[in-house]
Design goal:
Layout lengths: L1 H25 L3 H15 L9 H21 L3 H4 L3 H25 L5 H10 L5 H10 L8 H11 L1 H15 L6 H31 L5 H21 L4 H13 L6 H25 L6 H28 L7 H9 L5 H12 L8 H26 L21 E7 L20 E8 L2 E4 L11 E7 L8 E5 L19 E7 L2 E3 L12 E5 L1
Antiparallel strand pairs: 1-4, 2-3, 2-4, 5-8, 6-7, 6-8
């Protein structure tokens, strides 16, 4: 059985990779594809064992959200988002409360739900989904005006803790375990303990990374992995908000300089993607299509409540007092309020509880999330264009820690007496715009290249250029072996899988043409 589970797991990941490529081309958020893939697997009984255990789903998704929340902080570059930290923080806290309150009132007065059910539903759907927002911002490379991209990044990455607190608070009221003063104390402990633990753990982790040498990038990855788990577990055991703690630790540690940091960011990027795929797939497996006809109408109505009233009330209510955000910008921020996996996970919490709830919250929230990701997610680029929010000079990737500010490539050239650079001053050499000499090695001497520096025979000039970042081009290197059929033939006579752009023959670099004859030992650089 375990082998079959592993095989199905591998199959799901392969299909998810393919769906990600297809959805990117079609402009549809990939997370929607993962969600629907799980629903298809569940309906068709492809998986030969039961996967409708909501308690297992809740435990797994809780673990997955730890890493998603941690990466939300760890992958955020503080220097790029600090200017909007106050506004984003208010959206992630006060904005969540306003969204929950307005949604609850609409469910109570328009849908005719009970007050407790309305409050629970409002809390469940009050936060925006970091995974969906991050995915769309990065894949579409949406550079937005007036620091809008980092604002959305920080808000969506940090508002789940508040939604979680509201949800457990409403569930406590529903089952009679908390009311009035007890509820206020519980929320205060959630925030206080979660924040305190996050700050202390982050400080200890930062000192450890600076003072202790962890040999091997693999063990550094394990240290950060354990750190994420501890950041959630410790405050949760103490009665605090583990999600708040784990986000703070991720943000603080992710903005420290330490060995192999970029490798760690890339590692957690992969972990984050894996958790998203598995979470959305598992949620899809839990869906009961037979109940959809009864749940789709309330889901659509609640989605419209959020889109047209609750989310705008939160965004305009928080940002308008700052008097520096235009109506179009606030309207766009409001539109990007996507609902996602966290809302469904909070709905699963209600199913596992003992609260007397009449509405099918899980399926309603599932339908709402599908509509939100499919409709809002696919229309975000269109909305940005219509509201004139696109800034072609802004790079959204700069607010993520895996972005390298200076993609530079260093190489060296030896100055020979025959070189056309020999005897010339640096400023006399007609280099392209993005190429310059950074350093000159002359014997044991290192010379900073200045405009009047004269290049002499034997100098080694260190040249710096921008690294190539073409997404569709692949460079390959091949060597002509003694048994190769290409030896003695012209390039135009040899069919190949790429364009030969350079031949290294001994100490010579040859720019080839179709009549260039290939020799044994030639080192080819091909562009595919």
């Amino acid at each position: 059985m375990i082998t079959l589970i592993l095989l199905i797991g591998a199959l799901v990941l392969f299909i998810s990779i393919g769906l990600n490529n297809i959805s990117t081309r079609l402009g549809i958020p990939a997370l929607l594809a993962f969600l629907l893939l799980g629903a298809i697997f569940g309906v068709t009984d492809v998986i030969p064992f039961q996967m409708d255990d909501f308690r297992f789903a809740h435990n797994f998704c809780t673990c997955a959200l730890i890493f998603i929340m941690f990466y939300g902080g760890f992958g955020t570059r503080w220097s790029a988002v600090r200017h909007i930290a106050t506004e984003a923080g208010l959206l992630a806290s006060v904005g969540v409360v306003i969204t929950a309150a307005v949604t609850s009132l609409l469910c109570y007065f328009i849908l005719g739900w009970g007050l407790i059910e309305s409050l629970i539903l409002g809390a469940i759907v009050s936060s925006t989904d970091a995974a969906s927002v991050f995915s769309i911002l990065r894949t579409k490379k949406l550079g937005l005006k007036n620091n809008t991209s980092p604002m959305l990044q920080v808000e969506s990455g940090s508002n789940d803790p508040m939604a979680y607190m509201l949800t457990i608070g409403m569930l406590s009221i529903a089952n009679g375990s908390a009311s009035g003063g007890k509820l206020a104390l519980m929320l205060l402990m959630q925030v206080g303990i979660g924040t305190a633990c996050g700050l202390v753990i982050a400080k200890i982790a930062s000192l450890t990374l600076q003072k202790v040498t962890i040999k091997g990038s693999g063990y550094i990855s394990l240290f950060i992995l354990a750190l994420a788990v501890a950041s959630y577990s410790i405050p949760d055991i103490l009665g605090g908000n583990g999600y708040l703690s784990v986000y703070l630790v991720g943000m603080i540690v992710g903005n420290q300089d330490f060995k192999d940091k970029k490798t760690i960011v890339n590692f957690f990027d992969g972990i984050n993607e894996l958790m998203q795929v598995l979470t959305f797939f598992l949620i899809g497996l839990l869906v009961e299509p037979s109940k959809m006809p009864n749940d789709i109408i309330p889901a659509i109505l609640i989605f419209l409540f959020l889109l047209l009233l609750a989310r705008p009330a939160a965004v305009f209510g928080v940002l308008a007092p700052f008097r520096k955000y235009s109506f179009k910008q606030m309207a766009f921020v409001s539109f990007v309020g996507l609902r996602g996996a966290s809302a469904i996970v909070f709905a699963i919490m209600c199913i596992n509880g003992d609260e007397p709830i009449q509405q099918d919250l899980f399926n309603i929230v599932f339908c709402l999330v599908v509509i939100s990701i499919a409709f809002q997610g696919s229309m975000i680029p269109w909305a940005a264009k219509k509201l004139d929010m696109i800034d072609k000079y802004s790079n959204v990737l700069k607010s993520f820690n895996d972005y390298t500010e200076d993609h530079l490539h260093f190489s060296w050239v030896e100055i020979t007496p025959e070189s056309n650079m020999c005897g010339k001053q640096v400023h006399e050499i007609n280099f392209p715009k993005n190429v310059l000499i950074a350093l000159i090695l002359r014997g044991n001497e290192q010379i900073i290249a200045r405009g009047d520096t004269v290049l002499q025979p034997g100098d080694k000039a260190i040249i710096v250029t921008k690294a190539f970042e073409g997404s569709d081009a692949i460079f390959l290197e091949k060597t002509i072996k003694p048994t190769s059929r290409r030896i003695g033939k012209k390039i135009k006579e040899v069919p190949g899988s790429g364009i030969i752009i350079l031949i290294r023959r001994g100490d010579k670099n040859i720019i080839p043409n179709g009549n260039t004859v290939l020799h044994e030992g030639d080192h080819l650089v091909l562009l595919r």
